[in-house]
Amino acid sequence: MEKSLQELAEQIDATVEGNATVRVVGMATIETAGPTEVTFVANRRYLKHLETTRAGAVILGPGVVCDRLPVLRCADPYLGFAKALRLFHPWVHRATGISPQAGVHPDAQIGAEPSLMAGCHVAAGARIGDRVTLSPGVYVGEGSVIGDDSFLYPNVVVREGVTLGKRCIIQPGAVIGGDGFGYAQDVTGALKIPQIGGVRIGDDVEIGCNTTIDRGALGDTVIGDRVKIDNLVQIAHNVRIGDHTIITAMVGIAGSTEIGVGVAVGGHTAIAGHIHIGDGVSIAAMSGVPGNLDAGKVYAGIPAQEHREWRRVIGTVPRLPAMRKEIAELRKELDALSESLRSKLSDK
Asked: Residue 294's pLDDT band (boundaries 50, 70, 90)?
Protein backbone atom coordinates (compact mmCIF):
# COMPACT_ATOMS: atom_id res chain seq x y z
CA MET A 1 0.00 0.00 0.00
CA GLU A 2 1.46 3.34 -1.09
CA LYS A 3 0.25 6.80 -0.07
CA SER A 4 1.33 10.38 -0.53
CA LEU A 5 1.99 12.37 2.62
CA GLN A 6 -1.06 14.49 1.81
CA GLU A 7 -3.27 11.40 1.63
CA LEU A 8 -1.81 10.06 4.86
CA ALA A 9 -2.21 13.40 6.65
CA GLU A 10 -5.88 13.59 5.78
CA GLN A 11 -6.46 10.13 7.23
CA ILE A 12 -4.63 10.69 10.54
CA ASP A 13 -5.83 14.27 11.22
CA ALA A 14 -2.46 15.86 10.54
CA THR A 15 -1.09 18.67 8.38
CA VAL A 16 1.94 18.41 6.10
CA GLU A 17 4.95 20.69 6.47
CA GLY A 18 7.25 20.23 3.47
CA ASN A 19 6.81 18.19 0.30
CA ALA A 20 3.32 16.68 0.51
CA THR A 21 3.84 14.63 -2.68
CA VAL A 22 6.42 12.30 -1.12
CA ARG A 23 5.09 8.74 -1.34
CA VAL A 24 5.52 6.25 1.50
CA VAL A 25 4.71 2.58 1.94
CA GLY A 26 4.86 1.98 5.68
CA MET A 27 6.07 2.83 9.19
CA ALA A 28 9.38 2.17 10.95
CA THR A 29 11.37 3.24 14.00
CA ILE A 30 13.32 6.46 13.78
CA GLU A 31 16.60 4.51 13.80
CA THR A 32 15.67 2.05 11.03
CA ALA A 33 13.25 3.95 8.75
CA GLY A 34 14.18 4.41 5.10
CA PRO A 35 13.16 7.04 2.50
CA THR A 36 9.82 5.34 1.74
CA GLU A 37 8.81 4.99 5.39
CA VAL A 38 7.30 7.29 8.01
CA THR A 39 8.55 7.46 11.58
CA PHE A 40 7.42 9.39 14.65
CA VAL A 41 8.70 11.02 17.83
CA ALA A 42 6.44 10.97 20.88
CA ASN A 43 9.20 10.93 23.52
CA ARG A 44 11.69 13.79 23.69
CA ARG A 45 14.62 11.42 24.31
CA TYR A 46 14.40 10.41 20.63
CA LEU A 47 14.58 13.96 19.25
CA LYS A 48 18.35 13.61 18.75
CA HIS A 49 17.67 11.03 16.00
CA LEU A 50 15.93 13.67 13.87
CA GLU A 51 19.41 14.75 12.74
CA THR A 52 20.32 11.31 11.39
CA THR A 53 17.12 9.46 10.48
CA ARG A 54 16.71 8.37 6.86
CA ALA A 55 12.91 8.39 7.07
CA GLY A 56 10.83 9.90 4.29
CA ALA A 57 8.76 11.86 6.84
CA VAL A 58 8.21 12.14 10.58
CA ILE A 59 5.09 12.53 12.69
CA LEU A 60 5.64 15.26 15.30
CA GLY A 61 3.60 17.07 17.91
CA PRO A 62 3.22 20.84 18.33
CA GLY A 63 6.37 22.89 18.81
CA VAL A 64 8.93 20.31 17.73
CA VAL A 65 11.15 21.73 14.98
CA CYS A 66 12.51 19.62 12.12
CA ASP A 67 13.86 21.15 8.90
CA ARG A 68 15.54 18.06 7.44
CA LEU A 69 12.48 16.19 6.19
CA PRO A 70 8.73 16.58 5.74
CA VAL A 71 6.68 16.69 8.92
CA LEU A 72 3.20 15.34 9.58
CA ARG A 73 2.08 17.66 12.37
CA CYS A 74 -0.64 16.45 14.73
CA ALA A 75 -1.83 17.15 18.26
CA ASP A 76 -0.79 13.73 19.57
CA PRO A 77 2.09 12.11 17.64
CA TYR A 78 1.64 8.72 19.31
CA LEU A 79 -2.02 8.65 18.32
CA GLY A 80 -1.02 9.73 14.82
CA PHE A 81 1.48 6.88 14.67
CA ALA A 82 -1.21 4.40 15.77
CA LYS A 83 -3.64 5.61 13.11
CA ALA A 84 -0.99 5.47 10.40
CA LEU A 85 0.13 1.99 11.36
CA ARG A 86 -3.47 0.76 11.23
CA LEU A 87 -3.78 2.20 7.72
CA PHE A 88 -0.70 0.39 6.46
CA HIS A 89 -1.59 -2.84 8.26
CA PRO A 90 -5.39 -3.11 8.20
CA TRP A 91 -7.11 -6.05 9.83
CA VAL A 92 -8.35 -8.47 7.17
CA HIS A 93 -10.53 -11.46 8.03
CA ARG A 94 -9.71 -14.50 5.95
CA ALA A 95 -12.53 -17.00 6.14
CA THR A 96 -11.15 -20.53 6.05
CA GLY A 97 -14.37 -22.33 6.94
CA ILE A 98 -14.66 -25.10 9.51
CA SER A 99 -11.73 -27.49 9.59
CA PRO A 100 -12.58 -31.21 9.55
CA GLN A 101 -10.35 -31.45 12.63
CA ALA A 102 -12.43 -28.86 14.54
CA GLY A 103 -14.76 -30.29 17.15
CA VAL A 104 -18.12 -28.57 16.68
CA HIS A 105 -21.14 -29.93 18.53
CA PRO A 106 -24.23 -30.43 16.33
CA ASP A 107 -26.22 -28.13 18.63
CA ALA A 108 -23.75 -25.24 18.31
CA GLN A 109 -24.64 -22.31 16.03
CA ILE A 110 -21.96 -21.04 13.67
CA GLY A 111 -22.29 -17.69 11.89
CA ALA A 112 -21.31 -16.66 8.37
CA GLU A 113 -17.72 -16.76 7.07
CA PRO A 114 -16.21 -18.65 10.01
CA SER A 115 -12.58 -19.62 10.53
CA LEU A 116 -12.66 -22.57 12.90
CA MET A 117 -9.21 -24.12 12.78
CA ALA A 118 -8.04 -27.66 13.50
CA GLY A 119 -8.07 -28.53 17.18
CA CYS A 120 -10.60 -25.97 18.36
CA HIS A 121 -13.73 -27.18 20.18
CA VAL A 122 -17.21 -25.65 20.32
CA ALA A 123 -19.56 -27.17 22.88
CA ALA A 124 -23.32 -27.72 22.74
CA GLY A 125 -25.48 -24.61 22.64
CA ALA A 126 -22.59 -22.27 21.96
CA ARG A 127 -23.19 -19.48 19.45
CA ILE A 128 -20.37 -18.27 17.24
CA GLY A 129 -20.99 -14.98 15.40
CA ASP A 130 -20.12 -13.95 11.86
CA ARG A 131 -16.49 -13.81 10.75
CA VAL A 132 -15.16 -15.25 14.00
CA THR A 133 -11.74 -16.92 14.12
CA LEU A 134 -11.09 -19.74 16.58
CA SER A 135 -7.43 -20.77 16.50
CA PRO A 136 -6.08 -24.25 17.30
CA GLY A 137 -6.66 -25.26 20.90
CA VAL A 138 -9.49 -22.81 21.56
CA TYR A 139 -12.31 -24.15 23.73
CA VAL A 140 -15.76 -22.51 23.76
CA GLY A 141 -17.97 -23.92 26.50
CA GLU A 142 -21.62 -24.84 26.59
CA GLY A 143 -24.00 -21.96 25.93
CA SER A 144 -21.27 -19.36 25.50
CA VAL A 145 -21.53 -16.62 22.88
CA ILE A 146 -18.69 -15.20 20.75
CA GLY A 147 -19.60 -11.94 19.03
CA ASP A 148 -19.11 -11.04 15.38
CA ASP A 149 -15.57 -10.38 14.09
CA SER A 150 -13.86 -11.62 17.25
CA PHE A 151 -10.48 -13.35 17.07
CA LEU A 152 -9.40 -15.95 19.62
CA TYR A 153 -5.73 -16.94 19.47
CA PRO A 154 -4.42 -20.44 20.28
CA ASN A 155 -5.29 -22.14 23.57
CA VAL A 156 -7.87 -19.61 24.72
CA VAL A 157 -10.47 -21.13 27.06
CA VAL A 158 -13.97 -19.66 27.18
CA ARG A 159 -15.93 -21.70 29.66
CA GLU A 160 -19.69 -22.17 29.82
CA GLY A 161 -21.99 -19.22 30.33
CA VAL A 162 -19.66 -16.56 28.92
CA THR A 163 -20.76 -13.79 26.57
CA LEU A 164 -18.04 -12.16 24.49
CA GLY A 165 -18.92 -9.03 22.51
CA LYS A 166 -18.13 -8.01 18.96
CA ARG A 167 -14.63 -7.36 17.61
CA CYS A 168 -12.88 -8.75 20.67
CA ILE A 169 -9.29 -9.96 20.54
CA ILE A 170 -8.24 -12.65 23.02
CA GLN A 171 -4.52 -13.42 23.11
CA PRO A 172 -3.04 -16.93 23.60
CA GLY A 173 -3.60 -18.75 26.86
CA ALA A 174 -6.29 -16.47 28.30
CA VAL A 175 -8.95 -18.17 30.42
CA ILE A 176 -12.40 -16.58 30.68
CA GLY A 177 -14.95 -18.03 33.05
CA GLY A 178 -12.80 -20.16 35.31
CA ASP A 179 -14.17 -20.72 38.82
CA GLY A 180 -13.83 -17.86 41.24
CA PHE A 181 -11.78 -18.49 44.37
CA GLY A 182 -14.72 -19.04 46.70
CA TYR A 183 -14.55 -21.21 49.84
CA ALA A 184 -16.23 -21.38 53.23
CA GLN A 185 -14.25 -22.69 56.19
CA ASP A 186 -15.39 -25.26 58.75
CA VAL A 187 -13.60 -27.69 61.06
CA THR A 188 -12.93 -30.06 58.16
CA GLY A 189 -11.28 -27.39 56.02
CA ALA A 190 -12.28 -25.30 53.03
CA LEU A 191 -15.69 -26.04 51.49
CA LYS A 192 -15.88 -25.07 47.81
CA ILE A 193 -18.69 -22.64 46.93
CA PRO A 194 -20.15 -23.45 43.50
CA GLN A 195 -19.50 -20.60 41.09
CA ILE A 196 -22.75 -20.47 39.14
CA GLY A 197 -22.49 -16.98 37.60
CA GLY A 198 -20.98 -16.13 34.23
CA VAL A 199 -18.83 -13.51 32.53
CA ARG A 200 -20.13 -10.71 30.30
CA ILE A 201 -17.59 -8.92 28.12
CA GLY A 202 -18.45 -5.90 25.97
CA ASP A 203 -17.52 -4.94 22.42
CA ASP A 204 -13.99 -4.09 21.23
CA VAL A 205 -12.33 -5.60 24.29
CA GLU A 206 -8.76 -6.92 24.15
CA ILE A 207 -7.46 -9.46 26.66
CA GLY A 208 -3.77 -10.30 26.93
CA CYS A 209 -1.84 -13.57 27.07
CA ASN A 210 -2.48 -15.81 30.10
CA THR A 211 -4.91 -13.38 31.68
CA THR A 212 -7.68 -14.94 33.76
CA ILE A 213 -11.19 -13.60 34.30
CA ASP A 214 -13.19 -15.60 36.83
CA ARG A 215 -16.91 -16.29 36.56
CA GLY A 216 -19.23 -14.80 39.16
CA ALA A 217 -20.26 -16.72 42.23
CA LEU A 218 -23.94 -15.81 41.69
CA GLY A 219 -24.16 -12.84 39.31
CA ASP A 220 -21.76 -12.15 36.45
CA THR A 221 -18.28 -10.72 36.26
CA VAL A 222 -18.67 -7.76 33.87
CA ILE A 223 -16.10 -6.13 31.57
CA GLY A 224 -17.32 -3.00 29.75
CA ASP A 225 -16.90 -1.90 26.14
CA ARG A 226 -13.43 -1.04 24.77
CA VAL A 227 -11.61 -2.23 27.88
CA LYS A 228 -7.96 -3.17 27.24
CA ILE A 229 -6.36 -5.76 29.52
CA ASP A 230 -2.67 -6.65 29.31
CA ASN A 231 -0.92 -10.00 29.88
CA LEU A 232 -0.95 -11.92 33.18
CA VAL A 233 -3.83 -10.06 34.79
CA GLN A 234 -6.09 -11.75 37.36
CA ILE A 235 -9.69 -10.52 37.61
CA ALA A 236 -11.64 -12.27 40.36
CA HIS A 237 -15.31 -13.21 40.57
CA ASN A 238 -18.01 -10.53 40.38
CA VAL A 239 -15.61 -7.71 39.51
CA ARG A 240 -17.18 -5.00 37.35
CA ILE A 241 -14.97 -2.88 35.09
CA GLY A 242 -16.28 0.21 33.31
CA ASP A 243 -15.90 1.18 29.66
CA HIS A 244 -12.56 2.43 28.27
CA THR A 245 -10.54 1.22 31.24
CA ILE A 246 -6.92 0.12 30.65
CA ILE A 247 -5.24 -2.46 32.89
CA THR A 248 -1.55 -3.21 32.37
CA ALA A 249 0.41 -6.39 33.09
CA MET A 250 0.40 -8.40 36.32
CA VAL A 251 -2.45 -6.57 38.01
CA GLY A 252 -4.57 -8.50 40.50
CA ILE A 253 -8.15 -7.44 41.27
CA ALA A 254 -9.93 -9.17 44.13
CA GLY A 255 -13.57 -10.16 44.11
CA SER A 256 -16.61 -7.86 43.88
CA THR A 257 -14.60 -4.69 43.28
CA GLU A 258 -16.16 -2.06 41.01
CA ILE A 259 -13.88 -0.09 38.71
CA GLY A 260 -15.29 2.96 36.97
CA VAL A 261 -15.13 4.31 33.42
CA GLY A 262 -11.82 5.38 31.91
CA VAL A 263 -9.61 4.10 34.73
CA ALA A 264 -5.89 3.42 34.13
CA VAL A 265 -4.18 0.81 36.30
CA GLY A 266 -0.38 0.52 36.26
CA GLY A 267 1.43 -2.80 36.21
CA HIS A 268 1.93 -4.97 39.29
CA THR A 269 -0.86 -3.20 41.17
CA ALA A 270 -2.87 -5.15 43.74
CA ILE A 271 -6.49 -4.10 44.31
CA ALA A 272 -8.47 -5.36 47.30
CA GLY A 273 -11.98 -6.78 47.07
CA HIS A 274 -15.37 -5.17 47.72
CA ILE A 275 -14.16 -1.63 47.05
CA HIS A 276 -15.08 1.09 44.54
CA ILE A 277 -12.67 2.92 42.24
CA GLY A 278 -14.19 6.05 40.70
CA ASP A 279 -14.30 7.13 37.08
CA GLY A 280 -11.11 8.52 35.56
CA VAL A 281 -8.78 7.34 38.32
CA SER A 282 -5.11 6.70 37.46
CA ILE A 283 -3.13 4.26 39.62
CA ALA A 284 0.67 4.18 39.35
CA ALA A 285 2.54 0.92 38.86
CA MET A 286 3.24 -1.32 41.87
CA SER A 287 0.56 0.29 44.03
CA GLY A 288 -1.51 -1.42 46.69
CA VAL A 289 -5.16 -0.37 46.85
CA PRO A 290 -6.91 -1.39 50.11
CA GLY A 291 -9.92 0.94 49.94
CA ASN A 292 -12.12 3.17 47.82
CA LEU A 293 -10.54 5.74 45.47
CA ASP A 294 -12.23 9.02 44.56
CA ALA A 295 -13.02 9.75 40.91
CA GLY A 296 -10.65 11.76 38.76
CA LYS A 297 -7.57 11.53 41.00
CA VAL A 298 -4.08 10.07 40.61
CA TYR A 299 -2.90 7.56 43.21
CA ALA A 300 0.38 5.79 43.98
CA GLY A 301 2.13 3.78 46.68
CA ILE A 302 1.37 1.10 49.26
CA PRO A 303 -1.17 1.80 50.59
CA ALA A 304 -2.29 3.91 47.64
CA GLN A 305 -2.59 7.62 48.39
CA GLU A 306 -2.94 10.74 46.29
CA HIS A 307 0.10 11.12 44.10
CA ARG A 308 1.29 14.45 45.54
CA GLU A 309 1.19 13.10 49.08
CA TRP A 310 2.94 9.91 47.99
CA ARG A 311 5.75 11.97 46.42
CA ARG A 312 6.25 13.82 49.69
CA VAL A 313 6.36 10.54 51.60
CA ILE A 314 8.69 8.77 49.20
CA GLY A 315 10.96 11.82 49.12
CA THR A 316 11.34 11.56 52.90
CA VAL A 317 12.33 7.88 52.94
CA PRO A 318 16.01 8.33 51.86
CA ARG A 319 16.46 10.89 54.65
CA LEU A 320 15.16 8.61 57.42
CA PRO A 321 18.60 7.24 58.56
CA ALA A 322 19.98 10.76 58.96
CA MET A 323 16.79 11.92 60.65
CA ARG A 324 16.98 8.99 63.07
CA LYS A 325 20.54 9.94 63.98
CA GLU A 326 19.55 13.58 64.48
CA ILE A 327 16.63 12.57 66.71
CA ALA A 328 18.94 10.36 68.82
CA GLU A 329 21.39 13.25 69.27
CA LEU A 330 18.59 15.64 70.16
CA ARG A 331 17.28 13.12 72.70
CA LYS A 332 20.71 13.00 74.35
CA GLU A 333 20.86 16.80 74.49
CA LEU A 334 17.34 16.94 75.94
CA ASP A 335 18.21 14.32 78.58
CA ALA A 336 21.32 16.31 79.52
CA LEU A 337 19.33 19.55 79.81
CA SER A 338 16.67 17.78 81.90
CA GLU A 339 19.33 16.38 84.25
CA SER A 340 20.95 19.79 84.58
CA LEU A 341 17.61 21.40 85.37
CA ARG A 342 16.82 18.76 88.02
CA SER A 343 20.23 19.33 89.64
CA LYS A 344 19.69 23.08 89.84
CA LEU A 345 16.22 22.65 91.32
CA SER A 346 17.50 20.20 93.96
CA ASP A 347 20.23 22.65 95.01
CA LYS A 348 17.65 25.30 95.93
From this structure: very high
